[in-house]
Write a structure and sequence with these properties.
This protein has 2 domains: 74 residues, Ubiquitin-like (UB roll) (Roll), CATH 3.10.20; 86 residues, [2Fe-2S]-binding domain (DNA polymerase, domain 1), CATH 1.10.150. It is 36% helix and 11% strand. α3 crosses α6. It is globular. The two termini are 31 Å apart. It binds FE2/S2 (inorganic) cluster (FES) (2 copies).
Amino acid sequence: MQLTVNGTGHSLDIDPRTTLLDVLRDHLALTGTKKGCDHGQCGACTILVNGRRINSCLTLAVMHDGDEITTIEGLGEPGNLHAMQESFLHHDGYQCGYCTPGQIVSAVGMLGEAKDNWPSNVTADLEGHADLSDAEISERMSGNLCRCSAYPNIVDAIRTVKDKSLKDGTAA
Ligand code: FES
Ligand code: FES
């Protein structure tokens, strides 16, 4: 199968039972994507597939032949961080850091969903613009658990990027 990961193409010959998370970590040595629960409960394994966030532990790699994957390593790098990575640093949006790659990737995907006006469970107007209040950010990030409870700073970090992207008229 073929995968493009962070802009690099890979040809892989893998056991069809292998999850996408295990391919990233064990076959491609991209260990930034974390394995927390390994069954869809914590969000530590969040990646972007064709621009949409998913839990990589819940999907088999062979289901993604030809897909474009972005992991935390592909968002930015030291010296050239993504705005969301910068914001998590600035707001101290972590303690142990184990959930952090998933939080950051999920936040980037979440802002894309909001920009496309996808409603959440707390969106009052299902037809209108999704205004990202703190309650909206929390709800939309509820699939990403933080055992250290860095949630207030995580919300601050995401809100800052959201406000900046609205001001600049850019996608986050
Ligand atoms: Fe995938 Fe927890 S490791 S959701
Ligand atoms: Fe420790 Fe989130 S920073 S689990």
